[in-house]
Amino acid sequence: MADIPDITREAQDRAASPPLESRVEVSESTLGKTKRLSRTGRSRKQVSSSSQRRLVVVSNRVPVPKDGASKAGGLTVALEGALKQSGGLWFGWSGDTVESPSDQAKVVQAGNITFAVLDLSQRDYDEYYAGFANRALWPICHYRLDLVQIERQELDGYFRVNRAFAASLAPLLQPEDVIWVHDYHFIPLAAELRRLGFKNRIGFFLHIPWPPSDVASALPAYQQLLQGFGAYDLVGFHTPQDAENFQRCLVRENIGSSIGTGEHEIDGHKVRIGAFPVGIDTETFVRAAANAERNALVRRTKASLGDRDLIIGVDRLDYSKGLKQRIEAFSCFIKSNPDFRNRVTYIQITPKSRSDVPEYQRMQREIAEQAGWTNGSLGEVDWTPVRYVNRTVGHAALAGLYRMSQIGLVTPLRDGMNLVAKEFVAAQQPDDPGVLILSRFAGAAHELDGAILVNPYDTEACAGAIARALRMPLEERRERWDSMMARLRTNSVEAWCQHFLSSLGNVSSEGLEAHATTNPENGRYPFSEGAPA
Ligand code: G6P
Predict the structure, then answer these.
(1) Active-site residue 67, yes or no?
(2) In terms of domains, do 446 and 502 share one?
(3) What is the pLDDT of residue 9?
């Protein structure tokens, strides 16, 4: 099969394609006060115009502006950046579990974004989110077959929640809406919407890797999941490799037929498949970093370091991030470069994540122990080599911490993109930039060629990369940084959003009729009762 094209490039050339316009539909609620939409989902102020298209984003995690800070994760950061530009409706889970969840979304209006969210019952949370999404899909897509837990009930819960979310989204939708579904939680959502008769353009973007078919085929209900992608008009991935892996999976499972490079026909409906590397809000981050010197946490941290160099890592506490290997590499670096003892500090900022999933609980204990052991064996009375912090740090302070670091250590074992790598680069001082050490298994490695690329499983090589980065001459650091920064300026989050949506706007919607009536059969998935998982 020919290589999957990078649709981003294609879309960049298509200068004539206008970005989709958007409208704000529900404007009666104010920030901080939630409101339930009526079953029809229409508020008095809704205006419908066939010449305008509203953007509807669907994702599991929706950072409704409220008292607390939003949850960590690249997805919400990227989508916040994307929706800020165009406005629209953002639909998904509230982040709360309640005894009897309503099937009507709670709505919060904030600026040009309307947030519409549903709560989950404890059972739905356990089966759909903590279960199938994070114990089957997540580990498999991150190539961790050793951590997979397959339960029939969780699989059913996943499809049940997708069906329920589609039904609750339905009354909020209008015929001209362009729907953009995000991430592994909602793969079957479009099939459910088609079943309800929706013919809107629907795109899907996967924020995590898609593995080769030998790994992906460990997914329970693998065929049905793949078939479900056929209800989308456009399916996007971070890298051409992920997109290629995905199309090969379709071919190997005889799902529809390939009708060209990056195009597949499933149940008479054409699906485009391509790579759209997500970016950051580069200019905003550059400004935040430049202003961060005044930030109190940044100032205190600087003072606490004295004249030591700083290495920084920032990740959700997840086994895909390679934290164990990273601490080992740092330890190996100190042991093999004793002149750096007491001259460098490694700060690892790691908010806890998915702590009710057993695989995460185990890993959290192990990493904490390892950080403790490392400090115990390497540290001095006046030097803590690893500062391991399970807290979320705000964006402004992070920007400042990146800027004062000599090294950004971003070494996931597998990652869809990794926006920390991009933020670290954007935060640097142009005349004295730090060095990015980046795993070759992060999607960002495809773009950030100025980083020192490492194999995160190779402890000594990672230790060597740290030594090399700390000794790198200014001229080389500048050269590397310049080339990465040029990429970040072109591939911003705004560009990502525009390229995806203009590609989605350009797909034809032929075949939707056929799809809506043929899949899934009788409106029921064959595995929901008694079928093999
Ligand atoms: C990754 C996933 C996102 C997810 C985020 C945080 O970035 O791709 O979909 O929202 O992690 O994980 P959580 O389970 O807390 O939503």
Answers:
(1) no
(2) no
(3) 40
